[in-house]
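In the design runs reported in the main text, the only information available to the sequence generator was the tokenized backbone. The following block is the verbatim input for one such run; it is reproduced so that readers can re-run the procedure and compare outputs position by position.
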């Protein structure tokens, strides 16, 4: 077969992406590193971008009510711009912690990657989003860029079990993995065939009276400076992590919203298991940020890295 020159392939890709309404097909989201103080001690936090994802505009922003909002995701013609997939690494004094694990390059070939899933699962995936991941940006390589090896990670905490948060798990077979008990037992769009065979996480139950506003939380660290809190809506058991530093709090928010503006404007996402729960989660996030200076970091927010470094607060 004749080899198609690379530049032509690139032109075809760009044309396809313009047809999908994507203006910039290759945005660059630089990794970020910052330091915070915890009990006077310096702690490094890294934002690592493992790749990008564009979703249907109606996936990011709800159009229509109930079932119609789901149909509108599949029928929509246009996509959002490519959004980052952030993984957060905390060099915590009690051991290095990773928040989510990102996506991997195999997922770009959906038919092959999800071959053991249902036809409908593949159809849905292909008609809802499109990912760009390169092997050199998978989480193992991203950790190397900040002089960490996968073995240096002590604990992996998952906000939820969607593939763009769990697909890097394969690099952490020996580490402790944590996920919410409710999330684990009420899976939403979890592709079981791509979970590592050894996957057997510690399932967390929130405890009462651990934090303002959210009330329930599971303390991840002995010092209780890192708390796993319920932020349901995106999935029934979706959780976020609150990191209480000496000067402010940081919320690693997973997919609680796609970006910070959604929370401020009360804009509900289309892809969601409960609009009511998401609305309550938004209200709680804002109430919490009114009580404590809070940096809010959703996984797919183009500005999460900049807000972390610039210490920019939710309210
Ligand atoms: Zn998700």
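Verbatim output:
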């Amino acid at each position: 077969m004749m080899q198609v020159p690379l530049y032509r392939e690139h032109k075809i890709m760009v044309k396809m992406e313009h047809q999908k309404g994507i203006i910039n097909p290759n945005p660059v989201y630089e990794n970020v590193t910052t330091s915070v103080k915890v009990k006077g001690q310096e702690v490094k936090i890294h934002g690592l971008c493992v790749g990008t994802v564009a979703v249907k505009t109606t996936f990011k922003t709800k159009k229509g009510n109930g079932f119609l909002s789901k149909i509108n995701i599949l029928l929509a013609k246009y996509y959002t711009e490519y959004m980052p997939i952030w993984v957060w690494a905390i060099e915590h004094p009690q051991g290095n912690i990773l928040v989510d694990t990102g996506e991997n390059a195999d997922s770009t070939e959906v038919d092959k990657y999800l071959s053991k899933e249902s036809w409908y699962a593949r159809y849905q995936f292909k008609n809802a989003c499109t990912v760009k991941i390169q092997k050199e940006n998978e989480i193992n390589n991203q950790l190397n860029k900040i002089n960490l090896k996968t073995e240096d990670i002590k604990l992996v905490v998952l906000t939820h079990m969607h593939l763009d948060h769990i697909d890097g798990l394969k690099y952490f077979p020996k580490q402790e993995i944590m996920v919410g008990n409710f999330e684990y037992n009420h899976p939403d769009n979890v592709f079981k065939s791509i979970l590592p065979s050894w996957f057997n996480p510690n399932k967390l139950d929130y405890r009462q009276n651990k934090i303002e506003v959210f009330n329930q939380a599971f303390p991840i660290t002995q010092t209780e400076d890192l708390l796993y809190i319920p932020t349901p809506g995106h999935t029934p058991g979706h959780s976020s992590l609150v990191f209480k530093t000496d000067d402010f709090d940081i919320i690693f928010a997973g997919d609680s919203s796609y970006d910070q503006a959604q929370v401020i404007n009360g804009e509900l996402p289309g892809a969601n298991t409960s609009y009511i729960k998401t609305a309550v989660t938004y209200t709680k996030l804002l109430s919490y940020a009114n009580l404590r200076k809070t940096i809010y970091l959703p996984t797919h927010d183009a500005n999460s890295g900049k807000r972390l470094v610039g210490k920019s607060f939710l309210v």
